[in-house]
Automatic annotation (TrEMBL), chain A:
Protein name: Phosphate transport system permease protein
Transmembrane region(s): 32-56, 88-114, 135-156, 168-191, 212-233, 282-304
Record carries keyword Oxidoreductase: no
GO molecular function terms noted in the UniProt entry: phosphate transmembrane transporter activity
One Gene Ontology cellular component: plasma membrane
Membrane topology category: Multi-pass membrane protein
UniProt cross-references to NCBIfam families, sorted A to Z: phosphate_pstC
GO terms (BP aspect): phosphate ion transport
Function per UniProt: Part of the binding-protein-dependent transport system for phosphate; probably responsible for the translocation of the substrate across the membrane.
Organism (species): Ureibacillus acetophenoni
UniProtKB/TrEMBL annotation, chain B:
Transmembrane regions listed in the UniProt entry: 71-100, 120-141, 147-169, 190-212, 259-284
Gene Ontology BP annotations: phosphate ion transmembrane transport
Subcellular location: Cell membrane
One cellular-component annotation, GO: plasma membrane
Name of protein: Phosphate transport system permease protein PstA
UniProt GO MF annotations: phosphate transmembrane transporter activity
SUPFAM superfamilies: MetI-like
Length: 315, 292
């Protein structure tokens, strides 16, 4: 186009003036930011959509079931025909059982892997192991669920004869395995960002690598490590397919880990895969349970955010 | 007077060095345990499922008899669903990232958008399922269709894509933008002709990884109510469909032992799918990414 312009005897100034006055370009410059802003609003709308959906349908649920019965009831029997009860505590307890077992498994192993990768491993080893751990994080949860049901549970049953087919222990352990990479990789990031000069200072004073890791790096990276654990808890709370496949569907209000349980997520799955009619109390109950779960994970996410912001050591 | 007693130092040094060795071994064990889990998981599933994996398994529809069961409808459904998720989530995600990185000024609204995205990334997938059920399936009356599931999954992976695209855009050095402005380019021209071409490898890598997460995600599909046993292929955006993880979930729940092997075979197909997608992502990252 430029060469055409010159051929017609126009100067460069003319071309610039012409292009500046072109209407299309001006409109593009003005409208694109607005369009992009609208796209950015979609994510806000998603949050609003989630919150409103949950609140709306939960409100509907509380028209039929009293709030105190829901929050403090210790019996969750929505399918018992004559006298269904909707006390959410057994579901929360089931969720917590799985989460606690998962954290007991994942935090020590994930942290060990993080320390090894950040403090001991050679550069080459780190570059091989980290991507493999990321593969572990990319395995779909349905695969983990299948693994829990068909591999971990039978092995555990040999060790603990009283263990039921559906229990809290097996999905708890497998959820733990699932979140190991998350803890390992986030904690490793936190430890790697501790500057080397501090490590070298400690080493020069005669500290061993273990002493450096324990007394220098860990305290400096603590906020990142704790927030990674809190994020992992949030992930374990919301985990669905592992607990649906291996956890069972009987919400009980006790502290046994060998018997069948039901988590909040597993209940939503159970109702969704059955045919609870639209508009029934059971239909609305999945929103109340979903809302409860949402509040739990939201608190955890905000907490993780707060910890990593508030207690971060800046170098 | 001696400040340092060599014999004491030597004695204590030994225990300290041994402790270092012991803990190193323990840390290594932790790392190896995680890797071992992956190996056991893969070996177990391959040995269980490989016997059922043949061409008939790919081309057959679901069946009540394990030896005839196949994943045709699920495989095609998953691929169709991906064809919806990929454009929707990438257009929205990249647009949001461009806005946040290039246009957004530091004010309350934009801070809120940023905080909202990081919180959205932590919402459990099953809650997205409830959103999809209420908004897409019922309120917009899309039914249990490809479109409803595709939209739900797009929203689910949107935060991941936004963050990946933001990182890729941020990695383009400021000098390149300034050079472009210096040549007289407008902001939008700079974005489309300088920033985006440089950021596209990073954006694609992040998006493909996010997509592979959407392919393996089951919980939202269950909540939306995607049917499992379908003997036809989806014929339009509003058609019913089923997806690979749904099919695997259904098989895994069945009491007959044979179906466990069928489920393993399904998992192999799903994992192969993911391996291919991840390889493409790694290939793009290694081949096209530039360091400045």
């Amino acid at each position: 186009m430029a060469s055409q312009g010159f051929r017609n005897g126009q100067s460069v100034q003319d071309l610039i003036a012409k292009s500046r006055n072109r209407k299309g370009k001006k409109i593009t410059e003005k409208t694109m930011p607005i369009l992009l802003f609208i796209a950015a609003l979609i994510s806000v709308l998603t949050t609003i959509g989630i919150v409103f959906t949950l609140i709306f349908e939960t409100f509907e649920f509380f028209q039929r079931v009293s709030i105190t019965d829901y929050l403090f009831g210790t019996s969750w029997l929505p399918f018992s025909g004559n006298n269904p009860t909707f006390g959410v505590l057994p579901l929360i307890l089931g969720t917590l059982k799985v989460t606690v077992i998962a954290i007991i498994v994942a935090v020590p192993i994930g942290l060990a892997a993080a320390i090894y990768l950040s403090e001991y491993a050679s550069d080459k080893a780190r570059r091989t192991i980290k991507p493999i751990l990321e593969v572990l994080a990319g395995v779909p949860t349905i695969v983990y669920g299948f693994f829990a049901l068909t591999f971990v549970t039978p092995i555990l049953q040999q060790l603990i004869p009283s263990l039921k087919i559906f229990n809290a222990l097996s999905p708890g352990i497998v959820v733990g395995i699932m979140i190991i990479p998350m803890i390992a990789s986030l904690s490793e990031d936190a430890m790697s960002s501790v500057p080397n000069s501090i490590r070298e200072g400690a080493l020069a004073l005669g500290a061993t690598k273990f002493e450096v890791a324990l007394k220098v790096v860990l305290p400096a990276a603590l906020s990142g490590i704790i927030s990674s654990a809190v994020l992992a808890i949030s992930r374990a709370l919301g985990e669905t397919m592992i607990v649906s496949l291996a956890g069972g569907a009987s919400p009980t209000f006790d502290f046994s880990v060998t018997g069948s349980i039901q988590t909040m997520t597993a209940y939503i799955v159970q109702v969704s895969s059955g045919d609870a009619g639209y508009g029934t109390t059971i239909y609305y109950s999945i929103y109340a349970v979903g809302f409860t779960l949402f509040v739990f994970t939201l608190i955890m996410n905000l907490l993780a955010h707060y910890i990593s912001k508030r207690f971060r050591e800046e170098y | 007077m001696r400040y340092i007693d060599d014999s004491v130092v030597m004695k204590r040094m030994k225990t300290r060095l041994n402790r270092n060795k012991g803990w190193k071994a323990l840390f290594l064990t932790g790392t190896l345990f995680a890797l071992l889990c992956l190996v056991i998981l893969l070996v177990r599933i391959v040995t269980q499922g490989v016997g059922y994996l043949d061409w008939d398994f790919i081309t057959n529809f679901a069946s009540r008899r394990p030896e005839n069961a196949g994943i045709k409808a699920a495989l095609v459904g998953s691929i169709y669903m991906m064809c919806i998720i990929a454009p929707v989530s990438m257009i929205l995600g990249v647009a949001t990232a461009i806005y946040l990185e290039e246009y957004a000024k530091k004010n309350k609204i934009n801070d809120f958008i940023r905080m909202n995205i990081s919180n959205l990334a932590g919402v459990p997938s099953i809650v997205f399922g409830l959103l999809g059920l209420t908004i897409f399936v019922r309120a917009l009356a899309l039914g249990k269709s490809l479109l409803a599931a595709g939209f739900t999954m797009s929203l689910l992976i949107l935060p991941v894509i936004i963050v990946a695209a933001q990182e890729a855009i941020r990695a383009v050095p400021q000098e390149q933008r300034e050079a472009s402005y210096g040549m007289g380019a407008t902001k939008w021209q700079t974005i489309t002709r300088v920033v985006l071409p440089a950021a596209i490898p990073g954006i694609l890598t992040g998006s493909i990884l996010a997509l592979s997460r959407a392919i393996g995600e089951t919980a939202p599909l269950v909540v939306i109510g995607i049917p499992v046993i379908l003997r036809f292929l989806p014929d339009g955006l509003l058609s019913e469909f089923t997806a690979l993880p749904m099919q695997i979930y259904d098989w895994a729940k069945r009491p007959q032992e044979e179906f466990l092997y069928v489920a393993s075979a399904g998992i192999i197909v799903l994992m192969l799918f993911l391996v291919i997608m991840n390889s493409i992502a790694i290939f793009i990252r290694n081949k096209f990414s530039k360091r400045y």
